[in-house]
Fold this protein.
Amino acid sequence: MKVVLITMVLLLHSFLQAELLTYDKVLKNLKGIKQYSGEDYQESENTFGQNSLEYPREGELHYNLGNSQYKNGKLQEAENSYNLALRDESINNKSEIRQNLGNVKFQQQKYKEALENYRMALQEDANNEDARYNYELASRFLQQQQQQKDQDKDNKDNKEKQEKQEKQEQQKDRQQQQQEGEQEQEQEKETQQQQQQESKDKNKEEAEKLLQALLAKEKEEMKKERMKMNVDKARKGRYW
């Protein structure tokens, strides 16, 4: 009888403790929801975060935490919380979780991944109109993103082509300038050589003239000398 009584007391104590734990979880969850509804997202994140740590297997708590983190701009943390929520096989709002995962990817401009999550959200619940709308929106953004990438690629290719052409033109200009410089140097060299040759010819001509003048002078002096000698001879013959 004592054994039965003790067993019943222990069972009753365990039941009351479980009820208290459940009550504590629900109370904190309600507190977090109130904070979230009042747009106090930082406090709701703290409340949901504490609750999810104490009850890590409760997918709904991770989902609530992810929503607060999303509102606080913590996209990576929100994604982690949503993925933890999906581990709970008993959770019944997988479509909403997938939709919110798509929203995270949309904000990260990863539109292809956003489309995949929206598609899975619709697979979970074909009546999820928000997921359907977001799917169509992400499709348009993905198309625009791809067009922008193609445009950026074309602009880059055109820029590289233009830079290549400019480089070739600059190189051509440098070569032309180099050739013109070499031609100018060659012409200057030829001019200098011509001037040197003209100077040599002039000096030679002047030397030739000087020589001719000296020879003429010498010839004139010799002629005068001979005339003088003839005069002397004539004088000597007369008085002899």
About this structure: The CA atoms of residues 115 and 136 lie 8 Å apart. The radius of gyration is 55 Å.
